[in-house]
Design brief:
10 helices; 6-stranded parallel β-sheet; 209 residues; alpha/beta
């Protein structure tokens, strides 16, 4: 039997969560293991339940979906987060992807196939609502699928820091930083630090001071 994909639903409206749960309950592969009504609760439940995928509303009380996404991925970088929103503004989509969300879909989309979107982000793919194709270029700006932690390490590499300095700043072991650096270069197909720095700056993967 195929392994279940565990899902945490995060939305401040109980009716919306119930509707999404109904959509997912019919799928044998998906299992909703929890629900949260605000960002802070989402962070706590993500830590406790460790779901494969979190369906996250952008606008949440106490802590918005973007901040909750950053916190969750900081602690559990392998979690896939699918951002759900009523808003299609480029800036919001950009912020969600930069925060580490693997997908961004619109709640009011007539053809919303939530189960399929969840399976795709669980498989490591990026999902962008068809209505947002004008910001397709944002996929590249996310860093070719780099995780939130890898983007963080990349930021320090661009700042000219050594593995030892990065390890100290991020409270990681030097070996872990070395693995992140190797993974980043491998994924981007770059083998020299100087080329990596140029690529990161040119493609907007890092924030310049």
């Amino acid at each position: 039997m195929e392994d279940k994909i565990t899902v945490l639903l995060v939305d401040d409206h109980a009716l919306v969560r119930r509707g999404f749960r109904r959509m997912l309950d019919d799928d044998d592969v998906l299992e909703v293991i929890g629900e949260a009504s605000n960002g802070a609760e989402a962070v706590q439940l993500a830590e406790k339940l460790k779901p494969n995928v979190i369906v996250m509303d952008c606008q949440l009380p106490e802590m918005n979906g973007l901040e909750a996404t950053r916190r969750i991925l900081g602690a559990q970088p392998h979690t896939a987060i699918l951002m759900l929103s009523m808003h299609s503004e480029d800036t919001l989509v950009r912020q969600a992807l930069e925060a580490g969300a693997r997908g961004y879909v619109l709640k009011n989309a007539m053809d919303l196939d939530l189960a399929r979107a969840i399976k795709e982000v669980a498989a490591g793919k990026s999902v962008l609502d068809p209505q947002l194709e004008r910001v397709e270029s944002l996929r590249g700006e996310r860093g070719a699928g780099l995780t939130a932690r890898e983007l963080e390490v990349l930021q320090h590499i661009v700042a000219g820091k050594s593995n030892k300095e990065i390890a100290t700043d991020l409270n990681l072991s030097v070996n872990t930083v070395s693995v992140h650096r190797a993974n980043i270069m491998d994924r981007l197909g770059i083998h020299k630090t100087a080329e990596l720095v140029v690529y990161a700056i040119r493609n907007g993967l890092v924030n310049l001071p």
